[in-house]
Q: What sequence folds into this?
């Protein structure tokens, strides 16, 4: 007998029939002897409809009132799901953020969970009912409704699983797990059976949309075993779990390519202290997040600096720099170059910690395809290279093949 | 400086533009120096859409979950209205049933208000904000969401007005007040300036849709001055207030015709005690409300009994009677007759209490048009006659003219 949290995203509850499927799955899980807590998102499209209604009223709606409206999407799904479970012969009860209660800070539209009371959920389970909790929502200390931001239902699910000590948190989605790379790009991509929180965090921050980053952070913090799986099949998906010894044998878990960044290079900077601070302070003030930064070794008192920013912010970044540090960037833009046609290709794996040579192999694999590396950045379990956009797919296929990701982990050659 | 409650129905908040109008009116009222509490219904059509969604899932949805869904309609309007007020330069905050809080009993889909806390409303007003309260909803003692039944926002408004001691409760609707009779039927119908709770109750129970009966009962119980008026104009509407001396001069306030009833007659009943109880007990058990009952003086040990039931229940009433008391009603239906083609025409007025002869005048006015009266029932301030359906419009016009309702109250002749 286990305590299982099952979270269903917008696509999985996108129609009356799909909600019936959710109900059948929850009942089946309960019949195996489990206590079941279901977390639901709004039906797909509903949140956009609600935001549209608010924006029709006001260009920039009040955040508190926005949350009052946005939270109704999950409220409706929760009640419909409870009805569906009852209709399939089960017992169920919907619970909203203020009923559970899920206490958050007061940052409307992007609140963070502070505490979750388990008593209402436990008393519901004790009656033999399935507890259906509206995702994405909570209340602040004044009882105002708050929402957790896009994808917040993942966070609701993992946080509730942590609060009630669930044995597993199942995240049902429209893909059947986390893959070694994008299967649309590389047909030989493999579903990963087990992945560590750290690797999942790197993959999520590199654009893998399957889990919200904050939910992975929470899972890591509280040791919640997360199972990402398809709501359209019974196949096992991907378990996101604490790092374990079996994983060490896998050097690289996944390969990703992101096309969301642009590169800015400033030439002939004075090679003196304080220059970098002068450049990046105004960007930070403008809420532009700078990702990779590389400064070459100076020569003859001058140096070049290159960094990447989100592609949508590139133009604004240049405007800010020209206004804030004209003595460096200049107004005619002579010293400045930019490139929107780049891609960031990354390999991720906890095995890098104990295996030297991953970077070398990566560079060799790219060189073999005559792909020039423009920038490099590394973390403990990730290596990223900026390359020309046109080589992105080729690079992903070469790295995926070169690191043996098409093979089951046991059959991959060591480095 | 007064404390004003303004309630806007589904038509008055039926679009983004109409909600903007609501916002402007609330701000204008506040600028006159008033504290303003706005109560809103769901946008017109929204409640039906939500109920439809639930019924698509289950033929008979769980009442608790039904309320979770239905309450989102008012939740959305409340937030949109607060946004609209902010957009027009005012300050506002939406408040839901559980935030106010409006405590009800546990009768989901038809809950009754037990208590209303005023503190959240007062603290909102104290900050100079307009409090926008979602109508129709409350919470039971367990924090479950409840709704008050159709038209429940009227009840929310009057109950809140009573709880916070408002100087007036304005009910904005798509008509500009209560009329002496249906203006579509009688062009000379006059808007009534002031009417007593008792008269309004009789008119509402006779089918005048302008105010929900329970809201009038509440207004009467707590002495809330209710102002029924149009959301599309600034004209004064109809005040529903305690009976006052000026009203006594008006003998008849209004004339109505209802087409919602059917008549059942059982002939040759044994004229002994207990027969009526035998007949009506099974109808009450079947939740069929019997309205008018007339039993003739018996002759030769037998009597006839006639009564009316809601037209939609007529067939079921006969089935129940045949099954429950076959020895009286028989299965071949020989002793039983029914007539669906009837109308109940009524005159209402507190002045009847002190003026004899209203009934006589009514009967004379109908006789003058050769309209046969089939049944009569009277209350202290109402006389109703069942007549053939085809004469309903003629009867209303004759009574409206005969009692001088086309004239201003001061110019009407005494009886």
A:
């Amino acid at each position: 007998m286990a305590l299982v949290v099952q979270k269903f995203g917008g696509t999985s509850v996108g129609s009356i029939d799909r909600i019936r499927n959710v109900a059948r799955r929850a009942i089946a899980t309960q019949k195996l002897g489990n206590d079941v807590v279901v977390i639901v998102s709004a039906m797909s499209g509903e949140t956009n409809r609600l935001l549209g209604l608010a924006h029709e009223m006001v260009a920039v709606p009040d955040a508190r009132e926005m949350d009052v409206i946005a939270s109704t999407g999950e409220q409706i799904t929760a009640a419909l799901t409870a009805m569906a479970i009852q209709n399939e012969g089960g017992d169920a009860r919907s619970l909203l953020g203020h009923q559970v209660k899920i206490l958050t800070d007061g940052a409307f539209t992007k609140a963070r969970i502070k505490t979750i009371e388990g008593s209402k959920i436990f008393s519901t389970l004790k009656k033999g009912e399935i507890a259906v909790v509206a995702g994405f929502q909570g209340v602040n200390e004044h009882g105002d409704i708050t929402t957790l931001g896009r994808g917040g239902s993942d966070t609701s699910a993992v946080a509730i699983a942590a609060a009630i000590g669930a044995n597993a948190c199942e995240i049902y989605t429209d893909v059947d797990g986390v893959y070694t790379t994008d299967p649309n790009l590389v047909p030989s991509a493999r579903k990963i059976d087990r992945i560590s929180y750290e690797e999942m965090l790197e993959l999520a921050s590199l654009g893998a949309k399957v889990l919200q980053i904050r939910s992975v952070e929470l899972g890591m913090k509280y040791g919640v075993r997360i199972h990402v799986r398809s709501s359209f099949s019974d196949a096992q998906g991907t378990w996101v779990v604490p790092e374990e010894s079996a994983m060490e044998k896998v050097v690289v878990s996944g390969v990703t390519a992101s096309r969301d960044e642009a590169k800015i290079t400033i030439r002939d900077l004075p090679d003196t202290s304080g220059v970098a601070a002068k450049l990046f302070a105004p960007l930070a003030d403008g809420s532009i997040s700078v990702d990779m930064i590389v400064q070459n070794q100076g020569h003859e008192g001058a140096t070049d600096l290159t960094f990447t920013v989100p592609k949508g912010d590139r133009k604004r970044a240049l405007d800010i720099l020209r206004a804030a540090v004209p003595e460096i960037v200049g107004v005619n833009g002579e010293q400045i170059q930019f490139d929107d046609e780049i891609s960031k290709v990354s390999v991720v794996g906890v095995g890098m910690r104990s295996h030297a040579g991953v970077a070398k192999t990566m560079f060799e694999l790219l060189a073999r395809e005559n792909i020039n590396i423009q920038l490099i950045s590394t973390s403990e379990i990730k290596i990223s290279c900026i390359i020309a956009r046109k080589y992105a797919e080729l690079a992903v296929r070469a790295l995926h093949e070169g690191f043996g990701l098409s093979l089951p982990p046991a059959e991959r050659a060591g480095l």
Observations:
- Chain B touches chain A at residues 16, 19-20, 50, 53-54, 56-58, 61-62, 64-66, 68-69, 72, 75-76, 78-80, 82-84, 86-87, 93-94, 96, 98-99, 143-145 (CB under 8 Å).
